[in-house]
Each structure stands twice: as C-alpha cells, then as structure tokens.
Amino acid sequence: MMGANLAPYGAPVYFIGLIVSMLPIIIALYYGRRLKLYETIWTGALLLLTFGGDGAHQLMALTAYVFFECAVMGAYHVYRRQKNATWVFAVAILVSLIPLILVKLGTMPSLSRLSLLGFLGISYITFKTVQILIEFRDGTLKEVNGVSVIRFLLFFPTISSGPIDRFRRFEADYDAIPDRAAYTELVGQAINKLFQGLVYKFILGFIFGTWLLPQVTEQLMRAHHIGDTGYLILMLVAYMYVWSMYLFFDFAGYSLFAIAISNLMGVHTPANFNAPFRSHNIKDFWNRWHMTLSFWFRDFIFMRVSLLMMKKRWFKNRIRVSQAAYLVNFLVMGFWHGLTWYYIAYGLFHASAIIINDYWLRFKGRHAGMIKHSWLTEGVAIFLTFNTICFSFLIFSGILDKLI
Amino acid sequence: MKNEQEVYAILADLTGEQLNDKPDQELFNSGLMDSMATVQLVMELEEKLNVNIPISEFERSEWDTPAKIMTQVAALQ
C-alpha cells in the first residue's frame, strides 16, 4: 500500500487532481447523465488514497464500520416492519453508537489502543446512521435500498467533516439529474464557493492559524512560565480572537469545498455557515454556525427530548422543559466533540448562554417598547454575542488545559 | 373550519400575535417561532386536531406559514 493518508482538501494542488478526476462526472451531468459506475470507481479510488495509507488501518476500520452499521440498520429495519418496541429502538441506537464511543474513549491515554478503531470522519458518519435508525422508528423511511444507504454514508465530498446531509434529501438529489440550465448554474455556484473557500482556508486560515497562532501561543506560554499575570491575560485575549478566526476560516473554508465538490456532482449539500459573527444573540448564532450539526441536534435531540418531557409531564413548567432539553442537547454535543473537560465545559457554557438568552428574550417580550431597536442596540447585541462566542471557543480550543 | 380556528388559536398562543389575516406569514426565519415553540406546535396539533406528526416528517420549509400548517394537518388527518 502507499505511504501516508491524503488529507481531503489539504492543499491547493489537491483540487487540481480532484477536479481532473471528476471531469467525466461533470461532462456526463452536463449531458443529463449520471455515470454511476464511474462514480463508484472514483469514490473507491479516493477512499483508498484518503484511508489506505499507513498500513491501511483506517481503511480497514472504515470498512468494518460500514459493515457493522449496515448490519445494525438492516436488522432494525427488518424488526421495525413487524414491531415497534421503544427498548429495541434504544438498543439499536446504542449498538450503532458503540464504535464511536470506543473511539472517543480511545482519546484517553490508558485506552489509546481503542483509537485504532477510528478513521477520519467517524464522528460525522455516525450522524448519518443514527438519523436513518430514527427515521425507521418514525416510519418516515420505509423501503430503502442498501446501495443508496452505502452511497449516502460514503459520499466522498463530505466524508471527513460534513456538512451533515439527510438521507431522503440526498437520495432525492442523487436520483434527480438537474437539467442543463440548472446544472450550469450549480457549476457556477460551485466555482464561486471553491474560490471563496480557497481565500478562507488557504489565505485567511493561513494568516490566523499558521502565521499568528504560533506566535501568540509562544507569548502566552512565556507569560505562563514567568508568571506575569497581566501579560498572560492580554495574551489569552489575543489567543481567543486569533483562534476563533482561525477556527471559522479553516472550517468554513473546508465546508465550502465540500459543498462545491458536491454541487459538481449534482448534489445540493446544505450550507454550514451563514455569517455567524453577525449573530445578534446565541440563538441566532446556532442558526448560523456549523448549521448542519446544529440543525441535526435540534431535530434529533432537542425537539425529541422536549417533546418526550412534555408528553411525560416531567416538568410542570414549559420553560423548565426547554432548559432541560438545552442542557441535554449541548451536553451531548460536548461529549460528541470528545471526552475532555473542555469540550464538555464548552457544551455547558452554550447551554447556559442559550438559557440566559431565553430569559432575556422573555423579559424583552414582556417589556415591549422599553428599549427601541436601533443600529446602536443591534451593534451592542452583536458585540456582546461575538465576545461570548469567542470566549466559548477559547474554552473549546483546549489551551486552558495547558495552563493548569 | 375547525382546523383553521385551532391552528390560528395555537399560533396566537405561541407567537403572541394574531395571524388570522396573515396565512402566508413566515414563522421561523421571522423569529416568531423558535425550536421550543415548534415542539409545542407539534404537541398542540397532535392533541387538539388528532394527528400524528413524526418529527422526521417536520421539514421546516413545509410548515413555515399558517396556510402550510393547515395543508400539512389536512394531509395527515
């Protein structure tokens, strides 16, 4: 097998190879045809390049994962046709989560051998399998084709870090070949996103991540060693902004690439970012930041947990229901990021922020007209939200762990 | 007619606004309804109009105005 794994969208030259290899797919779509066989071979080759390096253990882990999840989905699908017990559903979800849980446990040094089960993108692919199980349970997904499921799971443009698509949406897109005018427009959008992504990831991401971040980190560590508290705080603030900008431009750039490449394949992979730093409150932020993750959590965790709590009448007060649901929602999100204190603290921080945000919105609703909306109040709101978000990213970055 | 009155009554309760003459008022992006209000909407519709709405079926773009909600409810009834 070849040497190291090839990171998706890792360098500008990657795109040249990727797009050249896609030319048959693009030309065929332009003439209204989908080259399924070529796309399958193309996907296989890219999976090999992406996961087949370093002794191919990621490739083996990915293959084993897909077989395992297909067995779980298949078994639950067969069961669900006849019966619908809640505990069976819960067991199916739990079993489908076992690989991810083991890999996350593998981040702890004592259990590091478990990390061999991991592969790039396992956190993201798991959303897809859980979503399909939930839709079987809801009865919104009845007849499914195994090949379509595997195609959805292994859709190459989004395999490593999303955006997280939904099965029915993806399948409908894949089966409906756009007409020439629509496809031409889609290719135009793809080119725009590709260039925007290049600016984000390789220029702005480079400035903040590769150029500024190491310098700020070095200064921060120096301040920490000599015990200069004033300088330490100053450098922490600098780190907070630099890291936040790096996180955004790197991830938004990557997301734009994934969406652009999907578009070239005639698939409208949903957007992940919508000017998140213009949010005027935390709720607004979660409708703009890492949107496919946030909406997945909204639809599959928040809404279900709160509906369940309301139906079971666990709380008298509906405000308490929403608060409990936020807590569950963001804690699960924290654990999904990884089993470290700072990811979980990040989850708790956002749960608290959104609960406080709700108190404020209710207060404002009761006192309508007390504060007139103006460019000033909007500016203050955006400023406060921006700093709250950046602070949460400071927690998320893990740098605080190195200062303890 | 029962559907229409109930849907408007539920929406008035959740949004704090009378939408009776605005069947095409957008509900989510306009900020009138958040996720919690959406959950309450699903529950109220299920209780009062005797429909079953799986959350997987709740595609926001198909439920984002009073008129669309009525169409969806009628289809599920």
Automatic annotation (TrEMBL), chain A:
The keyword Acyltransferase applies. It is an enzyme of class 2 (transferase). Pfam families: MBOAT. Pathway: Cell wall biogenesis; lipoteichoic acid biosynthesis. It is found in: Cell membrane. The chain crosses the membrane at residues 12-30, 86-105, 111-127, 198-217, 229-249, 256-277, 289-307, 380-400. Its EC number is 2.3.1.-. One of its GO terms (biological process) is lipoteichoic acid biosynthetic process. It is a multi-pass membrane protein. It comes from the Bacteria. Belongs to the membrane-bound acyltransferase family. GO terms for molecular function: acyltransferase activity. O-acyltransferase that catalyzes D-alanylation of both teichoic acid and lipoteichoic acid (LTA). D-alanylation of LTA plays an important role in modulating the properties of the cell wall in Gram-positive bacteria, influencing the net charge of the cell wall. Catalyzes D-alanylation from DltC carrier protein. This is Teichoic acid D-alanyltransferase. InterPro entries: Ac/AlaTfrase_AlgI/DltB, DltB, MB_O-acyltransferase, MBOAT_fam. GO terms for cellular component: plasma membrane. Keywords: Acyltransferase, Cell membrane, Membrane, Transferase, Transmembrane, Transmembrane helix.
UniProtKB/TrEMBL annotation, chain B:
Residues 1-77 form the Carrier domain. PROSITE patterns: CARRIER. It is found in: Cytoplasm. GO terms for cellular component: cytoplasm. Carrier protein involved in the D-alanylation of lipoteichoic acid (LTA). The loading of thioester-linked D-alanine onto DltC is catalyzed by D-alanine--D-alanyl carrier protein ligase DltA. The DltC-carried D-alanyl group is further transferred to cell membrane phosphatidylglycerol (PG) by forming an ester bond, probably catalyzed by DltD. D-alanylation of LTA plays an important role in modulating the properties of the cell wall in Gram-positive bacteria, influencing the net charge of the cell wall. Belongs to the DltC family. This is D-alanyl carrier protein. It comes from Secundilactobacillus kimchicus JCM 15530. The lineage of its organism: Bacteria, Bacillati, Bacillota, Bacilli, Lactobacillales. The gene is dltC.
